[in-house]
Every structure is written in C-alpha cells, then in structure tokens.
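Fresh eyes needed here. Kindly weigh in on this sequence plus structure tokens:
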Amino acid sequence: MFKLFINTFTMTFIAEWGDRSQLATIVLVGINDVAGVILGGCIGHFICTGGAVLAGALIAKYVSVRKVTFIGALVFLGFAIASIFISPQEDGIEGIPEINGYDNATRMINHNVSLTLALQHIKEEGGEAMFENALEYNDY
C-alpha cells in the first residue's frame, strides 16, 4: 500500500508541477485569500482525480487494461495525425493582441490574468450586480 501511495504521489506531483492550473492558482492567490485558494485547489483536484479513479475502476470491470492502453495509444496517435493538418498559425487565440517577444502560451496567460484582474476590479468597485452582469454578457 505504501509503495502504491509513493508511486501515485510521485506521478501526480511530477505531472502537475508547473502546469496551467498551477499558474492559474498563482494568479488567484495574488488577488484572493491564500487559505481559500489552497482549499479550493485541493478539493478541485481531489474531485477530478477521484472521478478519474472511479471511472477507471468502472471501466476495468468491463475492459481489460491492455485494451484501455491500446485505445489510449490510438487516441494519442489520432492527436498526432490531426496535428499534421492543423496550421501552426491557427493558435486558437484570435482577438488576443500580439505581444512582441512572447509566445502564444504566454500571451494566453497574460490575457487570462488581465481578465481576472478586470473582473476583480468590477466586483470591488461596481458591486455584485455589476459583476454578475459583466460575467453574463462578457462585458469586461
């Protein structure tokens, strides 16, 4: 049991270190309560991972691990083949201004941080009603 715990912990820790959700929590903690961000992040990750474990246990009752591995390999192969036909210029961030010297991922993070700060400002200055209205109509 302890070996399984260490293996799972290490795999999850390495996979999650420095990913986009971690960058998002850095932004959130910059404008919110630290304890709330820690609690929300832990509960969110717990639910997401728990759902994956439960779904995996359910699938394992009906499908062999070998078949699941094979299907996963086919899916990733499909992603690789699809990427051949997708233009590198189609970055999916139309409408986000170019920033000289920054790659697309950095531009996206910068854009998301800007929107988060704008929403926080609307919430603080305009009250709940204005905040809800901005969210509903994407008016920020």
Q: What stands out?
A: The radius of gyration is 20 Å.
